[in-house]
């Protein structure tokens, strides 16, 4: 059965048998070329399609009359014409036509039986004159699918069962899910890196630690607050950062240039607080400004500024 | 400014990706529910009408198969008729094939009960459904087989006497002229 199915499955493959015009005579002179290309003439079963191709070339000034082609639909009780397509190509002198006909046969023979696709006549117009070209009938053999003796099963005569629907395919959804999850995971990792949540990257969270320290400190602990911020800058830069070395700091960390004024104020204030005379009076607003500097540094550190 | 924009774009992308993930998870959950219904119906267990109301065509097809297996032909017919307009040539061919099976089973039951007058139109409908299925998919082997079963049920209607292949449309006329009961040989 499998072998037979394979053989029959090849029905659409063109085993081209080129037949010259069956009917010769004066009408063939109207055409330069007439070929009928047909598939194998045997081994068809009920429901099979039979493609036929007619290739012809007319002389100059001739045109195919389209309504002389068979109309798609049921031709007789067992034969159906599913499609007719006409391709018109420019020939050397006249026109070249490629007519594709797709038949489907619904005959259920009891044994191998010869059947014929009926002939028809193509008509051409040439300066008011009508010329005709017959297309010969084509004979093929059809074979049965079932044995002669009726096969029985528990429900009576054996029938092929109903077609169960396939399970709904979730492949597209699963693929989309994986893609979305991968993208989400990638972005989450990137954000975790930016925010210093990944272990083993202490430089990504120097201002985060400093900010945490500063939150607990009040005005009396201003020296510790200044020291915490200095530690953060030193830790980020890898060596001590001073007011006069800020340019060097900006070269290796250009993103901090956007708050250059605030950093200049911080280093200047720190210098004055630790090394200038003790006349400087620490005020609450200085501490708040210090915290703002630290917050801005933290924003730059995590990429949101 | 660009750094800030890039940073918030990152957050927005994360939100979109998480939203897509969530949507797909929900859709997968819904799909597995539909597949469970299909499996249940094909295993021979009915499902409630409320579950079918918003279900996919495949689920309704599975229900039609279930109803047909349980000889609930009218309900199966109503379900299949609703599915005739669904998209996709393959699904349409399968619907028509199942419709053909439905008619053919009924034909066989009527014929066995000796109710030929009711069996005949059903057989015609079965053949028509199989033919439509095969027009949509000429490689549909189950439809070919069952159409042949249907054709053989009333062989005298479908045989072509040798030498008469091309004149099938006049068969109907011949049939009437050879109907029994007509007096022959009268003047």
Automatic annotation (TrEMBL), chain A:
Annotated signal sequence is 1-21
Keywords linked to the UniProt accession: Membrane, Signal, Transmembrane, Transmembrane helix
**Bilayer-spanning residue ranges:** 177-198
Designated name of the protein: Nonribosomal peptide synthetase MxaA
TrEMBL record, chain B:
What superkingdom heads the lineage?
A: Bacteria
Protein name from the UniProt record: MxaK protein
